[in-house]
Design goal:
This protein has a single domain, classed as TIM Barrel, CATH 3.20.20.70. It has an eight-stranded parallel barrel, surrounded by eight helices. The chain is of the alpha/beta class. It has helices at about 45-55, 80-95, 105-115, 125-135, 150-160, 190-195, 205-210, 215-225, 255-270; strands at about 20, 25, 30-35, 60, 95-100, 115-120, 140-145, 170, 200-205, 230-235, 250, 270-274. It binds phosphoenolpyruvate and manganese (II) ion. Phosphoenolpyruvate (PEP) binds near residues 38, 68, 120, 121 and 173. Manganese (II) ion (MN) binds near residues 234 and 244.
Amino acid sequence: MIVVELQPKIEETQTRPVAIGSDLNVGGSDIVLMAGPCSVESYQQTRAAAEAIYSIGGRVLRGGAFKPRTSPDSFQGLGLKGLEILRAVADEFGLLVITEALGVEHVPLAAKYADIIQIGSRNMQHFPLLWAVGETDKPVLLKRGFMSTIKEWLSAAEHIAHRGNEQIIVCERGIRSFDTATRNTLDTNAIALVKQSSPYPVIGDPSHATGRADLVLPAARAAVAAGADGLLVEIHPRPTEALSDADQALSLAMLPRLAEESGRIAAAMGRRLV
Ligand code: PEP
Ligand code: MN
């Protein structure tokens, strides 16, 4: 058991890298870029995103098949068909897959089709879901609840670890503040604090943290500068037509620039973006 302890420390806690697939580590010296559409919408759309990731040397494709939408009238995702598309397209380019399990019933499916199971912000304290992924042997990416404290977030991670699965990556995806100019606020304090006080790799999600495509690059740079071990970024071949999170989707043409700029910050930190 890891005690959730946020007191000031002289010695930083060592990050325990999480192995993804056979040759990728999150939490080592490399900073891992994960990118893809918010939702898997079609084979063509997902394939175009995967090709863009592949062409910059990226390794991980993201995409939602079961979507946690605020309104039941919004696009809810393609479900199993979405998982099949993700896997097929990723295999075509030799990429790894991260996708969200929205409910306990999706855990076996996500474990079958993906290399990392994502737990969404709205589900951070969905304890039966945390227990279910804790009983798999798959790496889990636990997003921070947008109204949750850092301590609650790390305690949620312990719910996963208690069931035997310590392959946990935590993801700062922005928290709600009083300001409505941006969708959320990227908590770079949290990235730095978790990095020094927890053994879990921490990654930044500049897409949900800002909700605006024009702020994704600076937020990505800030996350890397704060010590993030990776980035989770939403891209779309036609951002304005995206069925979910259109405002924050980067075009495929922006991906090399994101990788280049974040890579320069990584280099300044003595790290490398992959
Ligand atoms: C997502 O990654 O598309 C998503 C729904 O994120 P969050 O849970 O952070 O809102
Ligand atoms: Mn999204």
